[in-house]
Amino acid sequence: MQQSIEQYMQHIGKQARSASQVLAFASTKTKNNALQAIHDALVAHQPQILAANKIDMERGQSNQLDAALLDRLELTHQRFQGMLDGLKDVINLKDPIGEVTDLAYRPSGIQLGKMRVPLGVVGMIYESRPNVTLEAASLALKSGNAIILRGGSEALESNKALAQAIQSALKQTELPYEAVQVIETADRAAVGELITLTDYVDVIIPRGGKGLIQRITNEARIPVIKHLDGNCHVYVEAQADMNKATPIAINAKTHRYGVCNAMETLLVDQAVADQFLPHIATLYEEKGVELRGCEKTQHILGDRVHPATEEDWYTEYLGPILAVKVVDNMNEAIVHINHYGSHHTDAIITENFSLAQEFLARVDSSSVVINASTRFADGFEYGLGAEIGISTDKIHARGPVGLEGLTSQKWIVLGHGEIRQ
Amino acid sequence: MQQSIEQYMQHIGKQARSASQVLAFASTKTKNNALQAIHDALVAHQPQILAANKIDMERGQSNQLDAALLDRLELTHQRFQGMLDGLKDVINLKDPIGEVTDLAYRPSGIQLGKMRVPLGVVGMIYESRPNVTLEAASLALKSGNAIILRGGSEALESNKALAQAIQSALKQTELPYEAVQVIETADRAAVGELITLTDYVDVIIPRGGKGLIQRITNEARIPVIKHLDGNCHVYVEAQADMNKATPIAINAKTHRYGVCNAMETLLVDQAVADQFLPHIATLYEEKGVELRGCEKTQHILGDRVHPATEEDWYTEYLGPILAVKVVDNMNEAIVHINHYGSHHTDAIITENFSLAQEFLARVDSSSVVINASTRFADGFEYGLGAEIGISTDKIHARGPVGLEGLTSQKWIVLGHGEIRQ
């Protein structure tokens, strides 16, 4: 490359900003036509894309990447079909842009309302998963945003091939092809530039390891939509219906281990611990889940449980390990969740109405759940259509972020010549 | 002070976080009782507060502060009454906390909705205006947030006296008195600590000069709700009703000069410039407003207008100066506004429905106005009750920030034992 990384990123940023101004005013039909054109271009470019992915895979194998990373990197036939289906789904989503709400007269005579608008330019930093490239690009387009994509360097060839297919499709439409840009360098300095392009980028969405996200958040000069980890809890309260508590405790931990909405700590009220713990421990043992318990748990379960350390209460295992703590009452459970948790998703199992109300109000998490599994906390289950990330922040988007998380609202004033008195 | 600034601010932060956990679950009645207690304590402490303000005023005078700053610093009888009235207004505002919206069943059987919750702890950095101390504290309490207040050092004695009254009142209520804390040191390092207390502060709201706000934004490690400036435009379109255009153009500029929603640049369509400009120029001359025009404006108005430089299009005069530009069409007006403006408040005067629609969609400002004065863009006129600031950002709050801007929404899931399939 002749130009410096800084010049290269400035150029990409400028192009994205310029494209975003066209996108912001594009009709739903224009955006859907563009998504359909991308769909068709993917079908046409499938051989080139799979060939590029093969290069990434071979390089990854010779670089001895671990099996899980290679698995995410691979564009199988099924994943390719998934990308095409995903595009169709996004076409069918309701366009959030231009929606006017709360339009009402003020005493001064003006009509005041809110109009939903795109954020502008989204910078997305993610792992080596080529299918995310399509997901993010399609959600950005549908919500009227331009997007700059920076996937893991291991997926560079795949992402370049995908970008070529997307841009060739956009060139056939009324939308500028710079609406979707892939950063075509493996140089890590590009990320540093991207997260400080204050004039050209409106929001950064990082995905990946906690360390990476923390570094990006610290260095970004642009708002970041992020979640660091999912240390989720289920609290089995004294008045829990055990026919609900048992399947939920099993589902929340064992339905999938490597996901951010899996339970990592089980809190059990002392009133039901003697009854509940031995039974649930047997079920976890059948699933191969290792238990790490507080002293009371150890007292009840004996050597069926390992001692938990202070560190365990903070840990997102993302695997078949579960921390277990017996608590005196709901207050102790809530204080524990708000202190050790990650404000992601936390559940109570109880039949007591007033305690359920209090739990809802006091637990400071992006999703608070009564009598259901924490596993429901995702974009598809919440009906957002698709998910570009999950936010554990309180500012802007919170919880699963779909199309609406990529938008903002501006005030609109419709007058009849009114002036301020 | 024995302890370091860092220790002092950590202590304040911890107390605020702890208070916020009580506030988040406080009932509307408890919060209103606390606001009433503060009202009564202000009345009782009035002599001490006014005496403290006198110390600040005398120090300010001997330090030769400028007249405008001294004016804002002074707690006159009228301003004191205004603070009391403001408290009553906040008591009468609807409590935003706990509101549940969009609660509906999902196909899985769970009920999914959103619950409005406080942000937690607000850090407010502002000018030497003691009445803002009360405004900010009361809005924070009503919305269930703890607040840390850092007013200008010139108002330190006034703010300490106000804090004493507020905390003495809170001690009589069910709310922790640490819900409202004033930073009691003039050391500037305290601001640097406040904006990096990531564990204890959820949002920073800076007010004051553009330089200060920019510095805070750059150094903060916490989300900032801010507006930098209000470079607002009125565009008189070719099909404008002159009976609306004239009073709006006068009102937007001359109603008050030193406010962020005053017009700073007037854009006039060339189709009506010959007719409109000479007439409006006469009215501005009567008001003592200096005009700075583009070449076409100069051609029409001759020596009644000064030549505008490129810098003028970017300038928020906050005084009786107005930049004037003749544009070829609405597209040029929109491009000008989005390029030179500050995304605050911009208006079009037109009778053309389709152009009005396009202006609404394309102008990228926190308030977009049709046929009314830009001066309406504030919290009271928008019915927010009171205003803690105006945001020109797109993330989280946009436009005037009232109670709702100090809140967030979390997802709530009400189940009946559902597990994920």
From TrEMBL, chains A, B:
It catalyses: L-glutamate 5-semialdehyde + phosphate + NADP(+) = L-glutamyl 5-phosphate + NADPH + H(+). Residues 9-285, 313-377 form the Aldehyde dehydrogenase domain. Coiled coil: none annotated. It holds the Pfam family Aldedh. It is an enzyme of class 1 (oxidoreductase). It is found in: Cytoplasm. InterPro entries: Ald_DH/histidinol_DH, Ald_DH_C, Ald_DH_N, Aldehyde_DH_dom, G-glutamylP_reductase_CS, Glu-5-SA_DH, GPR_dom. One of its GO terms (molecular function) is glutamate-5-semialdehyde dehydrogenase activity. Keywords: Amino-acid biosynthesis, Cytoplasm, NADP, Oxidoreductase, Proline biosynthesis. Belongs to the gamma-glutamyl phosphate reductase family. PANTHER family: DELTA-1-PYRROLINE-5-CARBOXYLATE SYNTHASE, GLUTAMATE SEMIALDEHYDE DEHYDROGENASE. Catalyzes the NADPH-dependent reduction of L-glutamate 5-phosphate into L-glutamate 5-semialdehyde and phosphate. The product spontaneously undergoes cyclization to form 1-pyrroline-5-carboxylate. This is Gamma-glutamyl phosphate reductase. The gene is proA.
